Amino acid sequence: MAFPEPPQNQRPLWQYLIAPMLFLSLVLHGVILFIPTGASEDALVPPPDPEEDGIAISRIEPPRATSTGSPRSGSANSASDNGAAATARNSVQGGAGQAADRRTSSPRSPARNGAAANRNSARQTERNPASNNDDVADLGNADGPNPRADNVTPPDPRTAFLSFIDIFEGYRGILPVDRNQLQVDADSWLEGVKGDRPALAAANLTIQPLRNFEPIPYLENICLPQAPATAEILVLVEADGTVSGEAFTLKDTGYTHFDEVAASLVSNHDFPSASGPKAYRVTVAVDYDADDCQWPPPGVDVADEFLTLVHSYIGPAGTRPLEAATARQDWLNGLVAQGKLSTAMAANTSAPDFKVPYDLGICLPIAPTPVQFGVLVRGDGSPQGEPKLLRSSGYEVLDQRARAMVSQFDFAPGEGDRALVLEIPVDYNPLTNKNLDPSEDRC
User: Fold this and answer.
1) How many whole angstroms separate alpha carbon 305 and alpha carbon 398?
2) Which residue intervals of 170-223 are DSSP H helices?
3) Beta-carbon neighbour count of residue 388 at 10 Å?
4) With contact defined as beta carbons under 8 Å apart, do 269 and 130 qualify?
């Protein structure tokens, strides 16, 4: 069967549907293109400004897989991040935690027991951290000390005076320096270090000078018997800047307290990190000016006679038995050279029945030693010439009292001229004198 032919000038129906279908497809395509997506949303909508809008923005991290062993254990990535953060903090802080551990466990801590420890704590200073730098040439060759810490409050007059007495007690005298002997001692120390660690010998370890070091503070500012000498400390430092072993005092200050503080400061110092272990010869001065110290101490309620006696201390030189024996022999040889004695025969030592008086009842920083005077006596018992001081009590005032007593002594007659040595003890008993510190009963 055949379909009837459409009339002329009339188009088929499907041709009328093409245009609407094309238009509909274009509309649908445009709608799809203009639908917003997640990727383009951030670009089209700007993020809020926390300062202007007052909005706190928090990032929520995606959940991480946790270990099945412990409910508190974090992931490996978390531990790595924490370790990196800790490393960064330690780098910024200069290894403060390790240095604090060394300071706590250091056997050379300068703190003393009881009230003295509290007084000495006011004299302590913070560590002097150095920058982490492999090149220490500038630090090792600098001659000027670091500026002193002026933000430390000086102790009150009473505390300062008691601290001064504590430091005085450890005074041993300033000995002359033999630089050649110091070098020998330094070389011996270095050889011992290499002997304990053969790898250092293979690395050709040498001692480097380190002079740019903060001085030891002396906040009391009361005149000491003698200006402290500059200490020299030998120390072995590991590659990370930590001190290995105990610092060795090559040259001391003449004061036990300052020696202990110097060794402690060096042991707790944050040295620069390097490619390997380093040996340093650290120079540590004491912040003391003999031309700018105070005497008498201000604001101290102590008898003037006691202060005068303490200020007359001349040091341990001349108080030791060996020095006294040498001084006696030199005195006898001088008498022979002058023709006052035929031979330098040994002088008889006599102990008279009197003592050098001391009635202040206050503990002295250093106990006086017996005084010895040499006297040339004629046959009739009269002294010839002035008495010769052979051994000092350590205090010039007490020596002068002993000299006056010897000058008035009645010697027994004898046969011819003779040399006598009078030994006069000081009437000083540390068990019966009162300590200036009320927290301590005895000297």
Assistant:
1) 12
2) 179-196, 198-202
3) 21
4) yes
256-267 vs 96-105: helix crossing angle, rounded to 10: 150
> pTM for the full model?
0.66
Cα 102 to Cα 109: distance, rounded to the nearest angstrom: 10
Q: pLDDT tens across 183-230, in order? A: 999 999 999 999 988 888 878 899 999 988 999 999 999 999 999 999
* Helix residue spans in 94-204 (DSSP H): 96-105, 114-121, 137-141, 157-169, 179-196, 198-202
Please choose, from the candidates 213, 219, 224, 419, the residue with its C-alpha nearest in 3D space to the C-alpha of residue 314. 224
Which of 357, 305, 349 has its CA nearest to residue 328?
Answer: 349
Strands 371-377 and 278-284, by their bridges, are unpaired
Residue indicated by tokens 């630089």: 179
CA 326/CA 238 separation, integer angstroms: 48
Question: Which residue, 439, 368, 373, is CA-closest to 407?
Answer: 373
Which pLDDT does position 78 carry in this prediction?
36
Q: Which has more pLDDT, 98 or 185?
A: 185
CB-based contacts of 231: which residues, under 8 Å, 6+ apart? 249, 251, 252, 253, 258, 259, 262, 283, 284, 285, 286
| pLDDT over 80 (residue 299) | yes
Per the listing, tokens 């008279």 go with 352
* Upstream peptide bond of 296 is cis (omega within 30 degrees of 0): yes
Length of the chain: 443
Helix (H) or strand (E) holding 263: helix 256-267
Here the tokens at position 144 are: 């000027």
Report the distance separating Cα 221 and Cα 294, nearest Å.
Answer: 6
d(CA 391, CA 314): 12
Q: Where are the domains of the chain?
A: 97-301, 311-424
| pLDDT tens per residue, range 325-345 | 999 999 999 999 998 888 767
Q: What is the DSSP letter of 81?
A: H
Contacts of 246 (CB under 8 A, 6+ apart): 107, 108, 263, 267
What is the torsional sign of CA 383, 386, 391, 393? positive
What is the structure's pLDDT at 347?
A: 77
**Whether pLDDT at 355 is above 70:** yes
Contact between residue 66 and residue 74 where contact means Cβ atoms under 8 Å apart: yes
Query: Which H helix or E strand runs over 208?
Result: strand 207-210
Per the rule left: phi > 0, alpha: psi between -120 and 50, beta: everything else, 322 is alpha
What is Dmax (Cα atoms) for the chain?
Answer: 184
